[in-house]
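in:
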């Protein structure tokens, strides 16, 4: 049996290397996947849509009269919005983290109402999401 004796400086670097390998493995295991993106995006889109549509006078008056409780209506669509975001996202998976680019919208709903094109770039790592960049085009 061969016994390796490490000097104090070598022990430090071996321990640091072992910690780095464990940390990288932990990050890779907690790299959020598409299902996690769906959950995150549903919540995020509800906040954005509620702010853009329900709390601004952007809806035509007739639609405002029909939609008595716009925030509740938007919140009830959280799962649908999350699924829509997942279906319109591209993932760059780097193992330890992922970058998602989601882009959708631009459809004409009514003659006077067009959905804006919404694009978002999101960093996913360690079980969390961080929105890096958003853009909206009318």
């Amino acid at each position: 049996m061969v016994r390796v004796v490490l000097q104090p400086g070598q022990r430090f670097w071996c321990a640091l290397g072992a910690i780095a390998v464990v940390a990288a493995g932990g990050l890779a295991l907690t790299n959020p996947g598409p299902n996690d993106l769906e959950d995150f995006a549903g919540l995020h889109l509800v906040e954005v849509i509620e702010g853009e549509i329900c709390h601004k006078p952007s809806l035509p008056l007739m639609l405002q009269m029909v939609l008595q409780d716009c925030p509740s209506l938007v919140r009830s669509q959280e799962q649908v919005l999350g699924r829509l975001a997942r279906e319109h996202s591209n993932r760059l998976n780097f193992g330890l983290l992922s970058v998602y680019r989601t882009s959708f919208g631009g459809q004409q709903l009514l003659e006077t109402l067009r959905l804006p094109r919404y694009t978002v770039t999101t960093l996913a790592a360690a079980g969390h999401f961080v929105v890096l960049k958003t853009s909206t085009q009318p």
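note: The chain has a mean pLDDT of 79.
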